[in-house]
Amino acid sequence: MRSSRGFIRHSVWCLVFVWSWRVAAAQDQQAPKTDPVEAVALNTILRRWGKQASSEWNVSGDLCSGFAADKNDWDHYPNINPFIKCDCTFSNNTLCHITKLRVNKLDVVGQIPSELQNLTRLENLALGFNPLSGPLPKELGNLTNLISLGISLNNFTGGLPEELGNLTKLKQFLASDNGFTGKIPDYLGSMTNLEEMRIGDIVNGISPLALISNLTSLNTLILRNCKIYGDLGAVDFSMFEKLSLLFLGNNNLAGRLPDGTSSSLKAMNLVANNFLLGSTSNSNTSTRGSDNTIYEADPANLGAATYYVTGQTRWGVSSVGHYFRATDAKNIIYSSQNFNNVVDSKLFETGRVSPSSLRYYGLGLENGNYTVLLRFAEIAFPDSQTWLSLGRRVFDIYIQGALKEKDFDIRKTAGGKSFSVVNRSFMVTVSKNFLEIHLFWADFTPTVRNGIPKSESKVGIIAGISVGAIVLVLAALFGVFTLLKKRRALAYQKEELYYLVGQPDVFNYAELKLATDNFSSQNILGEGGFGPVYKQYFVHAQNIHVTNLAGSLNLDWVTRFEIILGIASGLTYLHEESSVRIVHRDIKASNVLLDTDLTPKISDFGLAKLYDEKQTHVSTRIAGTLGYLAPEYAMRGHLSEKADVFAFGVVMLETVAGRPNTNNSLEENKIYLLEWAWGMYDKDQALEIVDPTIKDFDKDEAFRVINVALLCTQGSPHQRPPMSRVVAMLTRDVDAPKVVTKPSYITEWQLRGGGNNGNTSNSYAGSSYQP
User: Which of 107, 586, 604, 644 does the annotation list as catalytic?
Assistant: First the structure.
């Protein structure tokens, strides 16, 4: 009996022990831990970037938990950012290694921390769309398991380090839109696993096209503005069997694309290279217009990167680009439509279609000044419903390499009418017996409206976009130009200009001294970058009345909106339409003057800066007014036109709210206008910031203005729209996207309590700089 009881007791203990061991083992399996070295490294990286782990993946206090450790790919969670994915199968499912890290579009500033090299199991690193700066650390070469590296749209400088050559498993390398210098490293030509490579805007270095010869696994290759040189025929593109997207624009390439290009190629862009002209046909027909001008036909059937020159070598045409999913696409179309606003309707019976770029060349011209007349018309709509609902047909016009019109829209210019001829006239100078007219679709992706029915399938949407791509820019476009030699003498031109109404008055110093009462302080209107601005009184002259936007005028909503739109139009001219690229650097309410009709005038260009159109930004000393400074400019001195966009966003809010951007007399949550606006926007109460003295206003229009203002004040310059698009959004030509990303500097104010203390160095508006 005792033996039996002992056996039972022993069995119970065995069962308890086995059960306890299994429970413990199960618990261990259910809660694997992140590698401690990697955990410390990631926490340090996030802390230095001012970010923190999300509770959606840092559920249990361990980094590799929640969504970070499940079986779904991270594409399943596009809105979680920052985000990681982990592999928890190590050490019998007890240890997790971080394999993916995403920190993109989060306004992260600074450099890549050296701790990143400790995440040695990383396979995917996505850091795009941030203003990260400095050189790429050579320690990136230690991440030898990387398959995808995304660093596009940052402010990185210097060369691509040689240590990146250690990343032999790399399949995706995205490094465009930075400030890299030097040649493209030779080691990239040995990374035969690469399937996608995007590099753009390399400064101060040249690289041979032969570099890509062995990268035959590529499906996407973009080497834009990288000073690539060589003959296209030197690379056997027939070996690139998977290549579907090829962009080699803005380089120094020559030759002609071989006929053996891969059949998988869906899009190609070779614009702005040094392709040689040659005659492909001796046939030519001509017609005489009503004004006795002789018009020669443009009958050539051009391919993806080909050209045509007339037998008489008077002019030529070249087309660049490849259609999406359109193997039978035609590049000459015909129309029997009559044009009511032109005598020579016959000229528009045919039109040239081009998917990306179209150039016309005038050859053998006498050097001198010319008037170039361009005549445009849309003559066909292959699918009017898809055409009208999915695409806008816009393109840029360059003459002699200079941008003359950006986002030119034929139908819009024609007043919304189809089958109407639009004329454009430009003055140009021919200095080398050669004239180039370039019609260029600047954006690769067609502009798609939001009106696609939700019931349509994904396939239907893709098909709609594809059709838009086929006919988007120059579909049904016929451009006829005539060259009218300008023979006026320069002296006559000056004389004619002198007698124009509105010529500027010129005063000597004595007159200015008298008009300002010896530059009396009583006549000072304000302080500008070049010194004080004085009110002046002239005998027998018209007085100039200046009104300050920040004054005490009681303006209704319509007037305020017109002022906002006027400022936006002025900045668009400075940034995009002027012959030189101008950044004002000190856009603020007090630098906007109103005339007697309350038309806004941007004033005080004392801090304005010019820089080359090809530059993404310039580095300069910080100047301007606190409260209007963009974060990247205030913190790093990186200046671009997007700094003006930021300041304009603040001015928009001031105009809507009828108050300055900082007012310490208000309650704490309203002291800083931008912070208050975001707070109200997050609560779906954006209209609460509208000036209470405005009794009647268009609520939809006011909300749209506030929405655009918040877009303009995004933390990253890449997220702010260009001024031309701001104008389009304000005038409802395009839809204004909903702002979904609160700038990190707003969040940091709130976390630090900086928004409630006007004297702390962490506060931004009106006190000091804030990243």
Answer: 586
